[in-house]
Structure prediction request, 323 residues.
Amino acid sequence: MKFIDYLFKNIQFNPNQGYAMFYYHKGEVFTKCLGKLKDKDSDEITLDSNFRLASVSKQFIAFAIVKLVNEGKLAYQQNIKSIFTDLPDYFENITVKHLLNHTSGIFDYENMEHDENIQISDGDILTFLRNTSETYFTPGSKYQYSNTGYILLGLIISQISKRELNEYIETEIFKPAKMYNSKVNLEGITNISNRAYGHIIEKDSYIVKDQYWCSATIGDGGLYSSINDLKCWCKYLNSSKEFQDMKIPNLVGNYDEYGLGIRIVKVNNNEFYFHSGSTIGTNTLLLFSVDLDLCFLFLTNINGFNTTRIKELLVEFLMNEEC
Prediction:
């Protein structure tokens, strides 16, 4: 396949890198799996291996919020102070929509004081935010990507639905999308079958490094899924009424790539939608387009791999192909 040849010509894959890849374009299909789930004695990675999705998880959080809005249980312009009344007063000026499209200006939790040996939970983010007194900028005036915002959205899902976030997502999203092996990970509790553990390269050695102090949060990146389940997700998402809202870009300043939990790119007047993810030991990419009859999914269990570069190469390839 032309794009796959182009991809492997322009991307340097680590020979020890484990990954699962799926590419579909206009009836042609390419799949490839390489490496082990954990160590040399573990099972091989397959299209059913479950990787941590990192920020690709944000699509599912956004979908749940849009679903609650469509059900009349929440509103895009609802301020966050009305949901969590013990947050500082400045949350009266921050809406659900601000959180969804990264225009809230709330502080990054990654900068909070922490113990490297103790993992924080989503609930700890509320404690962190209670002790803040301002935002980086006036809410709604600027785009700035925020993991904190999506953790807060996950907490809102639980608060509004009166259900645990993992139970809500697995029941209300994974099940109807036929993503039967996907999980919301509660580290140390959830049993994730065929789990692909993250790895880092340290002193030329390829070692398991799957967790650190902020790896246990859910809303910003704690979902696990496989290539086969994500294929079901792309189909389900595209046919859903929620997606109609998710793919409307924010129009703050000159930045209009981000909608609600999804990025929008135009290639010769055709739209495709994607999100990438990166965390310790794991990098991910989900990309699809009905206009271009295209789907690309990539999950790898190694740190420092630039999945956004794959998206850039695909855009270059499509621009030339569609001319």
